[in-house]
Specification:
By secondary structure, the chain is an all-beta fold. It contains no helices and eleven strands.
């Protein structure tokens, strides 16, 4: 089972990026998927998750209203649309898949992790 996150890059404050996470090895249409991030010198933190039917999402307070998580089960893919980016959003972003249908903000809920993609927001 592999998750591959991509789409990161360098963007100016106020800009947008769309991260993608593709799963291979098994289908994740029945599993919740989440995004986490780790800024330099900080612990990894929860960003957002989406349940298997896409009818339940959860966002951290720091990204609520700016980021949108979505998924395409036919493509075995999950996306994170990031708008109005701020320098404090600079981090390595990881996608993760749970063994459950509904997600959580806790890392322990997620079993499969991608390698991460770097997002840098310049001021």
């Amino acid at each position: 089972v592999q998750l591959q996150a991509f789409g990161g890059g360098l963007v100016q404050t106020g800009g947008s990026l769309r991260l993608s996470c593709l799963a291979s090895g098994r289908r994740f249409s029945n599993n919740a998927v989440g995004w986490f991030r780790q800024a330099p010198g900080k612990e990894r933190e929860f960003v957002a998750h989406i349940n298997w039917r896409s009818d339940t999402t959860l966002y951290s307070d720091s990204v609520k209203g700016r980021f949108t998580i979505s998924r395409d089960n036919a493509k075995n893919a999950v996306y994170l649309q990031m708008n109005s980016l701020k320098p404090e959003d600079t981090a390595v972003y990881y996608c993760a898949a749970s063994i459950y249908s509904y997600g959580s903000s806790s890392e322990t809920y997620f079993r499969y992790w991608g390698q991460g993609t770097l997002v840098t927001v310049s001021s």
